[in-house]
Specification:
Blueprint: H1 2-20, E1 27-29, E2 50-51, E3 55-59, E4 67-70, H2 72-77, E5 87-89, E6 93-97, E7 102-107, E8 119-125
Parallel strand pairs: 1-3, 2-8
Antiparallel strand pairs: 3-6, 4-5, 4-7, 7-8
The structure holds 2-acetamido-2-deoxy-beta-D-glucopyranose and copper (II) ion (CU).
């Protein structure tokens, strides 16, 4: 009997430790095994949650591609001119930390790669400030 209670207490203690421990930052390999290439699928972000502190790892042959961070309008227009760049990475093994909540836009600035689909939009959420819950059905007006 006593040992069963000890076991129960122990599992509760372990559960509490796991709940209180900050979730470890995740590193996302952009494009998974294929990396950051012209075959980068627009669906790659589907089902993924990016949290403040996580990072993106862009892997590609240096010189063939790059990573350029731009604003939303330049992202939509695939404006890859140098003046549109908020940040640029060229090492071929680039880690970008998602250090704040909000949307960030990344493209490849080489040739027409952006137009061909080498573009990535990530929405970063801050778990400390969850999105406000939508009001119940009855409160929504016509
Ligand atoms: C590209 O972006 C820069 C900076 O946002 C802007 O000054 C420039 O006019 C844009 N070029 C085009 C063709 O949209
Ligand atoms: Cu490219």
């Amino acid at each position: 009997m006593a040992s069963r209670q000890v076991l129960l207490l122990a599992s509760v203690a372990i559960a509490v430790v796991f709940l209180l421990a900050p979730a470890s930052a995740e590193v996302f390999m952009v494009g998974d095994a294929a990396g950051w290439t012209l075959e980068y699928p627009a669906t790659w972000t589907d089902g993924k949650t990016f949290v403040v502190g996580d990072s993106l790892m862009f892997m590609y042959p240096a010189g063939q591609h790059d990573v350029m961070e731009v604003g939303g309008a330049d992202f939509r227009a695939c404006n890859v001119s140098a003046s549109a760049a908020i940040g640029t990475w060229t090492s071929g093994m680039d880690t970008v930390t998602l250090d704040k909540a909000g949307t960030r836009w990344f493209v490849c600035s080489v040739g027409t790669h952006c137009v061909q689909g080498m573009k990535l939009l990530v929405t970063v959420v801050d778990p400390a400030t969850p999105a406000p819950a939508s009001p119940p059905e009855s409160f929504r007006c016509c």
